[in-house]
Structure formats: structure tokens, C-alpha cells
Design a protein that fits this description.
Largest sheet: none
Low-confidence stretches: 89-101
Number of helices: 8
Order of helices and strands: HHHHHHHH
CATH superfamily of the largest domain: RNA polymerase sigma factor, region 2, helix turn helix motif
Radius of gyration: 17 Å
Shape: globular
Number of domains: 2
CATH topology of the largest domain: Rna Polymerase Sigma Factor, Chain: A
Helix content: over 70%
CATH architecture of the largest domain: Orthogonal Bundle
Strand content: under 5%
């Protein structure tokens, strides 16, 4: 995203909002799914994330901060939902599936096969970090914020995961 789209977004341009939505929706939905394990709920929380950010868009000062603002908002909404769900003792959990990862159609089959192999090798947290790092191109710091761990923990987990993948897929 460039500065002019960000400026239009902050000024309330709905077309610019659409561009922001298109660029960040797959990442935000994946973050929500990571926390909820429910496809429909993750879509609802992703939509709520964009609604909240739109309503508070004037608080965002720098176009580079928009991604962090979106991911933090999504994470917080999911955590809030989880707390409310726990209080209400509602148990709605679906098993983790690779089909929820949004990737281009022409590459989906090949990437999906690779991801399935990797998912079988790694624990869920390491797998999720690999997805954030290599599919969504997030920095270790951003992954740490999303997953509520330290940057060092992310670095260590990713390094161990890569070694494990290399040794298992030889």
C-alpha cells in the first residue's frame, strides 16, 4: 500500500477502504482463525476488525503502522471473544484445517500439498509461525505480537522448525 491510498483511507474514502480491505483481509482472517479455530467466526471477527479500524482510522498516524494496527485489533478482538466465550461456557471449536489459508488458485494445490507435509511434521505453534513468516511475509516482531510470545521465541521456533523440515523432507 502506498501513502496516497493511506491518506485517502484516513480521510474516509470508501474506495481506499476497499483497497486496504483487499490487501489485508487474508492475513486478518488467518489471525482470527488461529485464535478461534472456527471459519465462520474468524470471518465475523475479521469483519469486526475492519469496522473497528475504519471507525478509529484517524488515530493511525503513519501508513506503515496500519498493518500493525489491524493485526493488533484482530488479536485483541479474538482474545476478548475468547474471554466472553469462556465466561458463557460456550464451546465452539473446529479442528484446524489447511483449507482456510488463502492462497492464489493456480498455486493452491502445490502449496497445499507442501503445507500438509509440513503440518504433519511440526507442532501447531511452529507451523503457524512458518505460515506467518513465509506465506504472509511477517517479521518476527509482528509474529511475536500476534502470538503473544517474545521475538526470541519466534526466532528460535522458526529456526528449529526449518531444521526439522529439512531433516524430515530429505
Amino acid at each position: 500500500m502506498n501513502k496516497s491510498i493511506f491518506k485517502r483511507f484516513i480521510e474516509g474514502d470508501e474506495e481506499a477502504f476497499g483497497l486496504v480491505y483487499q490487501e489485508f483481509y487474508p492475513l486478518i482472517k488467518q489471525i482470527c482463525y488461529f485464535y478461534t479455530r472456527d471459519n465462520f467466526l474468524s470471518e465475523d471477527l475479521a469483519m469486526q476488525t475492519f469496522t473497528n479500524v475504519w471507525e478509529r482510522r484517524t488515530n493511525i498516524r503513519d501508513y506503515k503502522a496500519l498493518k500493525k494496527y489491524l493485526t493488533t485489533t484482530a488479536k485483541n478482538l479474538c482474545i476478548d471473544y475468547s474471554r466472553k466465550k469462556t465466561r458463557n461456557q460456550v464451546d465452539v471449536v473446529d479442528p484446524f484445517t489447511l483449507d482456510t489459508i488463502v492462497i492464489p488458485k493456480e498455486e493452491k494445490k502445490d502449496i497445499n500439498e507442501r503445507l500438509q507435509k509440513i503440518a504433519k511434521i511440526l507442532d501447531e505453534e511452529s507451523y503457524q509461525m512458518i505460515v506467518y513468516k513465509y506465506l504472509y511475509d511477517l517479521k518476527h516482531r509482528e509474529i511475536a505480537e500476534i502470538m503473544n510470545v517474545t521475538t526470541a521465541a519466534v526466532s528460535n521456533k522458526i529456526n528449529r522448525a526449518l531444521k526439522k523440515i529439512k531433516s524430515e523432507l530429505k
